Every structure is written in structure tokens, then in C-alpha cells.
UniProtKB/TrEMBL annotation, chains A, B:
Residue stretches making up the PurM-like C-terminal domain: 170-318
Gene name of the encoded protein: hypE
Lineage, opening ranks: Bacteria, Pseudomonadati, Pseudomonadota, Gammaproteobacteria, Lysobacterales
Family membership: Belongs to the HypE family.
Biological processes, Gene Ontology terms: protein maturation
Cross-referenced PANTHER family: CARBAMOYL DEHYDRATASE HYPE (PTHR30303:SF0), HYDROGENASE ISOENZYMES FORMATION PROTEIN HYPE (PTHR30303)
Occurrences of domain PurM-like N-terminal (ranges): 53-158
Protein name: Hydrogenase expression/formation protein HypE
Superkingdom of this protein's organism: Bacteria
CDD domains xref list: HypE
Length: 344, 344
């Protein structure tokens, strides 16, 4: 089916609403996401009432992906565009269900690259158990965008009675993470042509909804979750502390960091706390549920390095404090500038 | 509140997840869309179960907007990003409810321009009765995007029992449009610096959901609607005919085209049938309901030029046939190339 597309490139006509665009959609895009809700190819997907259960709330999120390069060890922009949005839904307690896909393509993009990215999106969607049910394609002239940008919006359903957020957090609650910090940031950095380092790190890009399901089942005292993406764990910890009106005390010795990432950080002068992740979450949990939570997380492939890394304190509201390996303390602030642009 | 932003420009730090991004979101973006579902500024909006009624289906759509220039007579990229997505939901029979806003900003974009575009989005959302409840902001380096791209995804609710689509279309059904063709296409074309024409045409960019509500109430026999955007009426008519398995016969003399648009088309060698619109819909309706439908549409400001422009025939399936003013007939095909890139 794809043979007549071999070696072809995206032209402005592929975004113009006419025959070329229709062929691109029906022959290349829709088959990658094949599912019954997408099939009518109307301007909107219709999600029948019977797909929703009484008492369920909806979660709704969006993210645009502009990562450069678009392919990196452990993933590509397509996988990222599905996992990132799935994770934004799941950390809110939602079961991710339906995604949209908005493509902005640069004139001249090889169709082969597009096919690979779409295949990756389709595979990630199947892995996460979501359907890409609606989409849009725009083409801009050469130089007006950088190869491909993808926006995915997502709808999830939140089971009745499941609430997460700052309301329930108490002093003594534990901060838990599901694995090593900074893999995505270092993998993308290493994939850039301007970095002459060979670093054996793969992005951690993965859909976290399966792990999060396990966590909600194991720990009724799960309070508040966020995924650690741009800005890393430091940013999420600061958001928790500031929005929740408490302080978070992190234990440096407990932070899981892969040796290769630690080495790269030392060479490059980077702090793994601020590095981007795409398959990591931070969760606050009642102290009495913490052990059960960690045990449950470790049964899941994406949680086998789960660790308790900090604790909620009532004093010094809004601050994140790191207790170093050597017993000292420092405040972990938000970054003012940017550590690495176009990381996701 | 905006004073310290005066004269500033977007930097890469505004997309990096740290303090600069948070300030941009809390001081510039969120206030433009102010509403309770957006207020928590979580990674996902939570839409409580009580916002949904039993038996309602959901409609879900997405569109990226890359129009150039970003400001044109009658609108801008922000207004377009709200109206376009509202219209995609409404033509499917849905009441548009919640929108997302994904911004891709080019480093160097003046903050004033961003503020103006966001204000325009907020105003359009209020006009359409929808809330922008979740969002995302990315910044790419200078030259990696063109000023600003916006993706909006939208969720609507479809009342129980409201079905549109090809299933119910019958020979003899009428094709109706709500007003003049091609205003958006000509307005954007005229706004481009490379066109040295002064053409007094404003984009028709508008939210059609209010008009469509009126139409569903007036005409139980309303069969199938689409908005005529990229590719114009010709494209929608072809989609109707091809997907529905019938032919559409258009009456050239009945097509509403503003004098200034007709004049510009003659000078530029363009066909108004293919020009983009952003506030126009084509609707198929049972013949017996047509008169009531047109009368109802004309009571609405966006339907005062409503007209019957064609008819469904059973023969010559898949074709769109135009009967000219002079009695001849020609087939109106899909365009192969593109008439004007980046029109929406």
C-alpha cells in the first residue's frame, strides 16, 4: 500500500484540503491508528454514551511536542506524543481513553519519516490502551517549522470518588518515585549532533497508566501524583510544595540515578534533579501506605526501581530542601532559565 | 498586571518548565481564559460527572492553526483557533463545551502579540459559550516555527438521539449554505504583504454553534452538516457526494458571493467554490423541511444570507455537478494542488 509513497516528500498540497490531503490521511495517517471511532473520518469523533459510566468525571489535557531531534535512543516524537499525554491524564487519576493527533508538517519532510513516527504513535497507543480517534494535518512551507510538530490532546475517565491533589496531603506523607532520574534529558542531549559524547542512555519514555492503576489499587492513601517532565523532579517537587503549602525534604542518597546519567551530568555540569523524564512520576502517599505502595510498584516493569525519596513537612511552606549525602542541606529552587530547549 | 511585560519578547526559558514559564502561564495565559475548570492549573482539567447528562455522547476534535499572517481583517489566529474547533464540533450535532489550547511560540515573539491573540481567543470562547480548560506552551528557537502556531482540541456533548451523517440522506434533499463564499480566503490573501491589492473583505470567522442550534430546532429533517474551510464548498460537496454515495447538483446562480470577493476572484483567477471560509456551513436537509430551515437561519445574524444552492440526486454517484448561469453543466472536482497555503 505504501509503495507509491516510497521516496516521496510532504508538499504544501498535502495540507490544502483537497485530493492530496485526503490520500495522505486515508493511506498513511488513518491506517497507523486504525480503530472504529476514527474510521468515519469526520471532523469530529463521536464517542457513544455507552462508553461512559454514570458518575465518572472526565479528564482533558493537551500537549504539543517539538522535541529535537525527532528520533532519539529509546523513542521518537511519536512515542513521546502518546506517552506524554497518556501520563498527564493518568497522574490525575484518570484512565486514558481517547487521543487526538494534530500534525504540523514542514514541506519537504520525507514520507518515510512520517510513516515511522505514525507507526510509533500507533504502537504506543496500543501499549497504553488508548485510541487515536480524531486528527488534523497542516503543512507549512519549508523553514516555517522544524520537520514535524505533534499535538495530542487526551480524554480520560476518572472513576467515581477518586480524588487527587493537595487537599489530602499531611505532614509525614512520603514522596515516592518510580525509577531513575534524567534518562530522557541525557538521551536527547546525546542524540543532538552538537554533542560529541557517546553516552549509553535511552529515554525512559513510557506510558505510566498501567503502573498508576497498580498504585491506586495498592494504596488508598495515594494523595497526589505528577509526572516529572520538563524541569525534572525539582520542578514537580516545587509545584507540590508551593501549591500544597508545605515543604518537601528530599534525601539525596535515595535519589535513583543511573551511573551513565550521573557520569554525563558530572562532565556536563548538569543536575539530574532538573533533567527531563518521560516515564517518571512523583507521588505523595500516606506514610502508613508507603510500604505497600513501593512493594506493588516493584511488581510492575516501570516501577522496579521505585524508591522513597522524601517527606512532607509542615514548616518552611513552599520550600524544597535537599539533604545531601554529607548531611548538609540546600534549597532546591525552580530554574529561572532553561537547561535544554525542545526536550519534549 | 501586564506592565512589567511591556515590550518583552518570548524567550526559550518561557517554555522550559521553570519559573519563567510559570509566570507566563499565571500572568498572561490563564487570565485570558479565566474559568473555574482551568483555575487549578493541573496538567489535566477535571470535568465533573455532573457536567454530563445521561445518554449524551461526546464529540472530540482537534485542529492546529498556522494561518499567515496571524492577524487579518475580521480576525486573527486566536479567534480562528476557537471558532474553527467550535464549528468542527457543532457541525457534528454537538454542543461545544470545553477546549484545550496548545501554543507553539517562536523565540522572539513580542509578548504584546501573544496577549492580543490570547485576548482574541478568550473573547471568541465567551461568544461561543465554551471554556478553555487546559493548555500547554512550547517555545522553539528563532526560525524553528513562524511566530505562533495554536492547536485547539475540543469536547462537545451530543444530545441523545441526535444523529447526523450520510445514512439518512435521500434523493431530493436540498443543500443549504448560510452565507457568502470565500470571504476568509480573500481576506487572508489580501492581508499578505505580497498581494498589492486593497480588497474590502473581512474574514467570516465566527462560531456557528448558535446558528446550528437554531437549525436543529427548526428542521428535524436536518441530515448532515460540515463547515466549509480549507478547500471551500467544492471540497465539502465532494466529500458529501463521495462518502454518501450520491451526486450533488449545484446551482451557480444561487451561490452567494460578495461583490468584492467575486471581483477579486476575477482579477486573481480564483474560483470562490474553492476558497476557504471560517464561518460557513453546508447542510443537507429534507426537502419538506427546507423552507422552515431557511426561514429559521435568516433569523440568526450568521444565517441572514442563507440560501438553497443544490440538490441530492441518486444518479452519477460521487459527483458534484454545477449548473452554470448559462445552462451548461460542469463537474466540480477536488483540487489536486493547493490554492493558498496556511489559510487556517
Amino acid at each position: 500500500m505504501h509503495s507509491r509513497w516510497l521516496g516521496k516528500r510532504i508538499t504544501l498540497a498535502h495540507g490544502a484540503g483537497g485530493r492530496a490531503m485526503r490520500e495522505l490521511i486515508t493511506e498513511i495517517i488513518a491506517p497507523a491508528f486504525d480503530n472504529p471511532l476514527l474510521a468515519p473520518l469526520e471532523d469530529q469523533a463521536r464517542i457513544p454514551a455507552e462508553f461512559l459510566q454514570a458518575g465518572e468525571s472526565l479528564a482533558f489535557t493537551t500537549d504539543s511536542y517539538v522535541v529535537s531531534p525527532i528520533i532519539f535512543p529509546g523513542g521518537d516524537i511519536g512515542k513521546l506524543a502518546v506517552c506524554g499525554t497518556v501520563n498527564d491524564l493518568a497522574v490525575g487519576g484518570a484512565q486514558p481513553r481517547w487521543l487526538s493527533c494534530g500534525l504540523i508538517l514542514e514541506e519537504g519532510l520525507p514520507i518515510d519519516t512520517l510513516i515511522a513516527v505514525l507507526a510509533s504513535m500507533g504502537a504506543a497507543a496500543r501499549e497504553a490502551g488508548v485510541c487515536i480517534v480524531t486528527g488534523d494535518t497542516k503543512v507549512v512551507g519549508r523553514g516555517a517549522a522544524d520537520a514535524i510538530f505533534i499535538n495530542t490532546a487526551g480524554i480520560g475517565t476518572i472513576p467515581r470518588g477518586r480524588h487527587t491533589g493537595p487537599r489530602n496531603v499531611r505532614a509525614g506523607d512520603k514522596l515516592v518515585i518510580n525509577g531513575t532520574l534524567g534518562d530522557h534529558g541525557i538521551a536527547v542531549m546525546a542524540a543532538r549532533n552538537d554533542l560529541a559524547l557517546q553516552i549509553p542512555v535511552r529515554s525512559d519514555c513510557a506510558p505510566l497508566n498501567g503502573l498508576i492503576d497498580v498504585m491506586f489499587t495498592a494504596a488508598p492513601g495515594l494523595r497526589w501524583l505528577r509526572d516529572c517532565t520538563r524541569g525534572g523532579l525539582a520542578t514537580v517537587a516545587n509545584e507540590f510544595a508551593e501549591e500544597g503549602g508545605f515543604s518537601l525534604h528530599l534525601d539525596e542518597a535515595a535519589l535513583p540515578v543511573a551511573d551513565a546519567v550521573r557520569g554525563a551530568c558530572e562532565i556536563l555540569g548538569l543536575d539530574p534533579l532538573y533533567l527531563a523524564n518521560e516515564g517518571k512520576l512523583a507521588a505523595l502517599v500516606a506514610a502508613e501506605d508507603c510500604e505497600a505502595l513501593i512493594a506493588a510498584m516493584r511488581t510492575h516493569p516501570l516501577g522496579c526501581d521505585a524508591a522513597v525519596i522524601g517527606e512532607v513537612h509542615a514548616e518552611r511552606k513552599g520550600l524544597v530542601v535537599l539533604r545531601s549525602r554529607f548531611g548538609g542541606e540546600r534549597v532546591v529552587d525552580l530554574i529561572d532559565g532553561e537547561q535544554l530547549p525542545r526536550i519534549c
